[in-house]
Write a structure and sequence with these properties.
Helices cover about 35% and strands about 25% of the residues. By secondary structure, it is α/β, with parallel strands linked by helices. It folds into 2 domains: about 5-30 and about 65-145, 3-Layer(aba) Sandwich (Rossmann fold); about 155-290, Hypothetical Protein Tm841, Chain: A,domain 3 (2-Layer Sandwich), CATH 3.30.1180.10. It has a 7-stranded mixed sheet, with helices on one face. The protein has a 4-stranded parallel sheet with strand order 2-1-6-7, sandwiched between helices. The chain has a 3-stranded antiparallel sheet with strand order 4-3-5, covered by helices on one side. A hairpin with a 2-residue loop joins strand 3 and strand 4. The chain is globular, with a radius of gyration of 19 Å. The chain starts with a strand and ends with a strand. About 40% of the residues are buried. InterPro entries: DegV, DegV_C, DegV_domain_contain.
Length: about 290
C-alpha cells in the first residue's frame, strides 16, 4: 500500500518540518485578542511568547483545523495514495479528532487515528509506523503500537496564569500557590493531562523529577535519552546544565519546543521532561529538529 501521513501542529512540527519528513500538515488555529492564526504554518511559539511578554493577560484560545484547509490538504494526496493516515492531537485535549473523523467518515481512503499523543510522541509513533510498513507489516500490525504508553512525562508550568484562565486552577488556589511558591506537577498519561502532585519551587521541582527519572532508568540506559520539551523557557540553558550533573552525563539530552497548541494552555516557560526509549532505527529522524546539548 502507498500510504500518506498527515500530522497536525500539535506534533510540534512546523509545516516545513513535516514536509521534510515526507508528511502532510494540518494547522490547528489559535485566536489571540480577536485575530486568528494558523499554528505551525504562520504562527509559532516564539510569536506567542512575544505577544505574551507584552501582555501577560492576553486572551488566547485554540481551535480545530479549518475544514476547508483539511479538505485542501487531503486533496493533494488522495488520488496518488491508497490510504491517507491523519494523526491529530490527543482526543482528550481537543475536538480536532472528532471533527476530522466526521469530516472524512465517508472516505474509505482516509484513516484518522484516535490519538492519545502530542508533541514528539506523535512523531515517534509515526516513525515506528513507517518502519513497520517498510518492513512488510500489515496496516493493522503497524498501527497497533499507537496504543502503547509506558513512559512517565511530567510537565511543570513556570507561571499559573494560563492554568487559571483555562479553568484548570482556581484563582484562589493560584494565589496560595504563588504565596507558598507551590507549582503543580502535571503528568501526561495516555493522552490526558492530570495532576501528579505539587512542588515547592519551579526549578527544584524539575531537578527532583529528572533525578527520579534517572534513578528509575539507571540500571539500563541503553537507547534512552532525556527529552526536554519547553514553551520558550528562558531558563532552559541553566536547567540543562543541572540535568547533566544529575544524570552524570550518562543520558543524551535533547530539547524541542512545546507546540503552540499546548503552550497557550500551559503558559510560556512551561517545561516537560521524560526519559524515553528511542530505537536506533528512528533516532536520527526523531531528533532531526531537536537541539542536542
Amino acid at each position: 500500500m502507498k500510504i500518506k501521513i498527515i500530522v497536525d501542529s500539535s506534533s510540534g512540527l512546523t509545516q516545513k518540518q513535516a514536509n521534510e519528513l515526507g508528511w502532510g500538515f494540518l494547522p490547528l488555529q489559535c485566536e489571540i485578542d480577536g485575530k486568528k492564526y494558523q499554528i505551525g504554518s504562520e504562527f509559532f511559539v516564539e510569536d506567542f511568547k512575544k505577544i505574551w511578554q507584552e501582555n501577560k493577560k492576553v486572551n488566547a484560545q485554540t481551535s480545530a483545523t479549518s475544514p476547508a484547509i483539511a479538505e485542501m490538504e487531503l486533496a493533494k494526496y488522495i488520488d496518488d495514495y491508497d490510504l491517507v493516515l491523519i494523526y491529530p492531537i490527543s482526543t482528550h485535549l481537543s475536538s480536532q479528532t472528532s471533527f476530522l473523523m466526521n469530516q472524512f467518515k465517508d472516505n474509505k481512503k482516509v484513516y484518522v487515528v484516535e490519538s492519545k499523543r502530542v508533541s514528539y510522541l506523535v512523531v515517534r509513533d509515526l516513525l515506528i509506523f513507517e518502519n513497520k510498513i517498510n518492513a512488510g507489516a500489515s496496516f493493522e500490525e503497524a498501527i497497533a503500537h499507537f496504543e502503547i504508553n509506558n513512559e512517565r512525562l511530567i510537565l511543570i508550568p513556570q507561571f499559573n496564569d494560563a492554568l487559571v484562565k483555562g479553568g484548570r486552577l482556581s484563582k484562589s488556589a493560584a494565589v496560595i500557590a504563588k504565596l507558598l511558591k507551590i507549582v503543580p506537577l502535571i503528568k501526561y498519561d495516555f493522552g490526558v493531562l492530570e495532576k501528579e502532585g505539587i512542588g515547592r519551587v519551579f526549578t527544584k521541582s524539575l531537578e527532583k523529577t529528572v533525578s527520579e527519572m534517572y534513578e528509575d532508568n539507571k540500571a539500563n540506559l541503553e537507547d534512552k535519552i532525556l527529552f526536554v520539551v519547553h514553551a520558550e523557557s528562558d531558563l532552559l540553558e541553566s536547567l540543562i546544565a543541572k540535568f547533566k550533573v544529575i544524570t552524570e552525563n550518562n543520558l543524551p539530552i535533547y530539547s524541542v519546543k512545546l507546540p503552540v497548541d499546548i503552550s497557550i494552555h500551559t503558559g510560556i516557560g512551561a517545561v516537560c521532561v521524560t526519559v524515553v526509549n528511542v530505537d536506533k532505527n528512528i533516532k536520527d529522524k526523531l531528533t532531526l529538529f531537536a537541539k542536542k546539548w
